[in-house]
């Protein structure tokens, strides 16, 4: 029994004990109530049992409801993650689920309001004159560095990173500041304890010495926690800043203004692409900005606190010398500091160019492989990396000399100067602190009246006090030197931060310029013809059809240069059921028409009208190169919708299967493993399957008007006809770009581009009319005339072959004579 008593009670026994205890307490309460209103004991027990049962049932039901709710959320998260979907709210926010450990967790993303963009637009497009920036973009002659432009740019970005005082970022900064102040206070405590420990050690006070060691370890544990929290909070601040800026940039970059297209193809303000800015430059900027808060804030607090402590200990002379030293060091390093901001900005640009070269090779790997262009691409990549390497090596060479100067001044010169300052109370006590000098005068006056033994004790105490003061001042000077060194080192960090700030600010200001279409000619001059500052046409959304009135088709160039005019004053109207086939030679501007209607290219003159919405009952564009998004097979059919949009529209997977059957792709789900299969679809599907997948999207969304740019060039003619008939059967008005004459049977009108001597004229005809037949007869007559010349071409070919034969025979005889002469010359030698 003794052995059993040492075992822990089982959960059942503990629950029984808890039940009995609760039952006794409830019964006791009912007994007290029975004294006021008498009840039978059986009734009391029955009431207690019922109350306890109801309590257990209600608590169990609440726990069961909580369990069911959490299980439902987990199942929903797994389902949405598997289907690459999200939850949409009425306020426009989205809740996406991401894998976390062995479960999923939801992340709610709130979109940036348009009023916020309007409020920030003046910060990025209308900077003050002191910042010396036009259109918000820093000009090339403004070097990124510590100037007014940097202060303005950094302040504008801070408005995005810290939108309000009650934001999460403000709380992180406040908490970080508290820990920085705590570390400063702990540094003062450590300096004082250091002096006490050395004093007790020199005086031989063992007990006090051990007590001081214990205090030292206790403070060390708190200091370790403080330092760890400072680093942790700095990382959290960096992530919070990056989250704010990334979502802000994504909302500007991927909105209805098509900034993701216009930024690279029309504006050109960010060079080769925004990926380098968003992925690398933004990360470096946020890390540098978060570290700046501690590298400047903490040393500044340390300088004020430690200078005040040294002023009390060493007097005003030491403080004056320290201030002069700070000013002289800062001036020296500022004058001799290289332009780190400009060098970092150029390094980031070269990194982006080198990365763009690799991205270009990956995107065109198949074409390069067919041409066997690996050696050429190898040379180009080596050349790009060589330029980047030379620039980085030049930066490192510049840093060698500057780091030597910086280390010598901040470490060794300041340390020697600190020893001189801390020696003032020892060698020049009259110039030390007031407390030190006032305490030494009475001791000298009473020196003759003190016995020898007492005098030795007093000397020992005075020596110990000096030792404590010297160690404390030394510790304070070392901490002060460290704080001042970090302040001086931060000059270089500020210069690098200025380079990152310039690039991030350039990206956001360019996005705002694209978003607001804020393109203006230089002051005092007229805009170039057909430049982005010369857009005078109108794009009207809300017309039941497609209409172009006196619209010049212009291939735009990067801002601020002018574009190239392809067609002068194009005009046509397409109404419901008026299927149009647009033909013409390569480079005539066929695809340019779809770009103008879609809003990718500006309408420089005239009027362009189109339906208001894209997708169902609106307008849809099938580009020449089929695009397959990353995600599930379901996403390929419903793109650009997501699974959440599909559910909100009440569509089912059975409808998707029917759509694939109509596009002659009904075998794809079974072959690939179902709708939730994730693959690199651009590598899985063939060329014809990619184009038919585009047609399947068209049949799924069922728009009223559809632009199809060579959408069936890789499809056989019989399947092509079925696809066009199916699309027309769903009430879709087709506007097709193709050079196939066989597609005329599926259209009502033809628009032929590239006519005339300068290939800038066009012809709009109805298929089957007399004029259209005349044009066909004219083309047939030209073909007959060419065919009638076949015999002449054959005779000419025969004459050319005879002439070539004579040349070859004559050449052969000359070669034979030459070989004979060589044989005669070689005969004697043999």
From TrEMBL:
Residues 177-409 form the ABC transmembrane type-1 domain. InterPro entries: AAA+_ATPase (IPR003593), ABC1_TM_dom (IPR011527), ABC1_TM_sf (IPR036640), ABC_transporter-like_ATP-bd (IPR003439), ABC_transporter-like_CS (IPR017871), ABC_transporter_sub-D (IPR050835), P-loop_NTPase (IPR027417). The keyword Membrane applies. GO terms for biological process: fatty acid beta-oxidation; long-chain fatty acid import into peroxisome; peroxisome organization; very long-chain fatty acid catabolic process. The keyword Transcription regulation does not apply. Pfam families: ABC_membrane_2, ABC_tran. GO terms for molecular function: ABC-type transporter activity; ATP binding; ATP hydrolysis activity; long-chain fatty acid transmembrane transporter activity. One of its GO terms (cellular component) is peroxisomal membrane. Keywords: ATP-binding, Coiled coil, Membrane, Nucleotide-binding, Transmembrane, Transmembrane helix, Transport. Residues 546-792 form the ABC transporter domain. Residues 766-803 form a coiled coil. Belongs to the ABC transporter superfamily. ABCD family. Peroxisomal fatty acyl CoA transporter (TC 3.A.1.203) subfamily. This is ATP-binding cassette long-chain fatty acid transporter pxa1.
């Amino acid at each position: 029994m003794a052995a059993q008593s040492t075992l822990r009670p089982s959960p059942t026994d503990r629950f029984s004990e808890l039940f009995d205890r609760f039952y006794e307490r409830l019964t006791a309460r009912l007994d007290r109530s029975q004294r006021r209103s008498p009840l039978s004991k059986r009734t009391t027990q029955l009431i207690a049992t019922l109350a306890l049962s109801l309590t257990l049932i209600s608590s169990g039901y609440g726990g069961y409801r909580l369990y069911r709710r959490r299980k439902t959320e987990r199942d929903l998260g797994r389902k949405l993650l598997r289907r690459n979907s999200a939850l949409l709210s009425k306020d426009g926010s989205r809740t996406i689920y991401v894998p976390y450990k062995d479960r999923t967790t939801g992340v709610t993303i709130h979109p940036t309001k348009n009023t916020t963009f309007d409020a920030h637009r003046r910060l990025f497009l209308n900077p003050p004159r002191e910042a010396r920036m036009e259109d918000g973009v820093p000009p090339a002659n403004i070097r990124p560095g510590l100037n007014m432009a940097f202060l303005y740019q950094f302040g504008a970005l801070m408005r995005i990173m810290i939108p309000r005082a009650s934001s999460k970022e403000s709380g992180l900064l406040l908490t970080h500041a508290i820990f920085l102040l705590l570390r400063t206070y702990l540094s003062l405590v450590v300096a004082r304890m250091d002096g006490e420990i050395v004093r007790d050690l020199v005086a031989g006070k063992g007990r006090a010495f051990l007590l001081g060691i214990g205090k030292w370890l206790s403070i060390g544990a708190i200091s370790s926690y403080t330092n760890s929290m400072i680093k942790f909070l700095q990382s959290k601040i960096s992530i919070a800043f990056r989250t704010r800026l990334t979502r802000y940039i994504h909302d500007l970059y991927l909105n209805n203004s098509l900034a993701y297209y216009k930024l690279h193809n029309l504006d050109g303000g960010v060079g080769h692409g925004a990926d380098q800015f968003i992925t690398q430059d933004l990360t470096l900027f946020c890390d540098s900005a978060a570290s700046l808060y501690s590298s400047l804030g903490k040393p500044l607090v340390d300088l004020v606190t430690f200078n005040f402590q040294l002023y009390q200990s060493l007097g005003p002379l030491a403080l004056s010398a320290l201030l002069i030293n700070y000013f002289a060091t800062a001036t020296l390093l500022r004058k001799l500091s290289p332009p780190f901001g400009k060098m970092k900005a150029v390094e980031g640009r070269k990194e982006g160019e080198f990365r763009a070269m690799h991205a270009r090779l990956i995107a065109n790997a198949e074409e390069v492989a067919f041409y066997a262009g690996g050696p050429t691409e190898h040379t180009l990549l080596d050349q790009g990396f060589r330029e980047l390497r030379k620039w980085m090596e030049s930066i490192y060479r510049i840093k060698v000399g500057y780091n030597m100067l910086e280390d010598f001044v901040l470490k060794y010169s300041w340390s020697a100067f600190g020893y001189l300052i801390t020696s003032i109370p020892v060698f020049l006590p009259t110039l030390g602190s007031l407390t030190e000098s006032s305490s030494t005068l009475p001791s000298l006056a009473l020196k003759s009246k003190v016995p020898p033994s007492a005098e030795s004790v007093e000397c020992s105490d005075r020596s110990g006090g000096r030792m404590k003061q010297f160690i404390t001042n030394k510790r304070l000077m070392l901490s002060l030197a460290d704080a001042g060194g970090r302040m001086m080192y931060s000059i270089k960090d500020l210069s690098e931060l200025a380079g990152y700030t310039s690039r991030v600010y350039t990206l956001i200001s360019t996005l705002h310029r694209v978003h607001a279409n804020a393109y203006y000619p230089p002051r005092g001059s007229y805009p170039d013809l057909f430049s982005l500052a010369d857009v005078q046409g109108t794009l009207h959304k809300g017309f039941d059809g497609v209409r172009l009135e006196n619209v010049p088709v212009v291939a735009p160039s990067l801002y601020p240069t002018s574009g190239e005019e392809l067609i002068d004053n194009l005009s046509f109207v397409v109404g419901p059921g008026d299927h149009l086939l647009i033909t013409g030679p390569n480079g005539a501007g066929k695809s340019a028409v779809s770009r103008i209607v879609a809003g990718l290219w500006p309408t420089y003159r005239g009027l362009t009208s189109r339906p208001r919405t894209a997708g169902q009952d609106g307008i849809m564009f099938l580009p020449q190169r089929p695009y397959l998004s990353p995600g599930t097979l379901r996403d390929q059919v419903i793109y650009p919708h997501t699974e959440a949009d599909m559910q909100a529209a009440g569509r089912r997977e059975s409808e998707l299967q029917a759509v694939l059957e109509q596009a002659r792709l009904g075998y794809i789900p079974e072959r690939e493993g179902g709708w939730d299969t994730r693959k690199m679809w651009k590598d899985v599907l063939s060329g014809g399957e990619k184009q038919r997948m585009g047609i399947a999207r068209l049949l799924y969304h069922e728009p009223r008007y559809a632009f199809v740019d060579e959408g069936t060039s890789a499809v056989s003619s019989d399947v092509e006809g079925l696809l066009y008939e199916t699309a027309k059967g769903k009430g879709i008005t087709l506007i097709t770009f193709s050079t196939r004459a066989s597609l005329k049977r599926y259209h009502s009108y033809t628009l032929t581009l590239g006519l005339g001597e300068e290939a800038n004229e066009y012809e709009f005809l109805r298929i089957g009319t007399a004029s259209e037949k005349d044009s066909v007869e004219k083309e047939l007559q030209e073909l007959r005339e060419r065919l009638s010349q076949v015999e002449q071409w054959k005779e000419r070919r025969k004459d050319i072959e005879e002439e070539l034969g004579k040349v070859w025979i004559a050449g052969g005889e000359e070669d034979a004579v030459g070989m004979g002469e060589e044989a005669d010359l070689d005969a004697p030698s043999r």
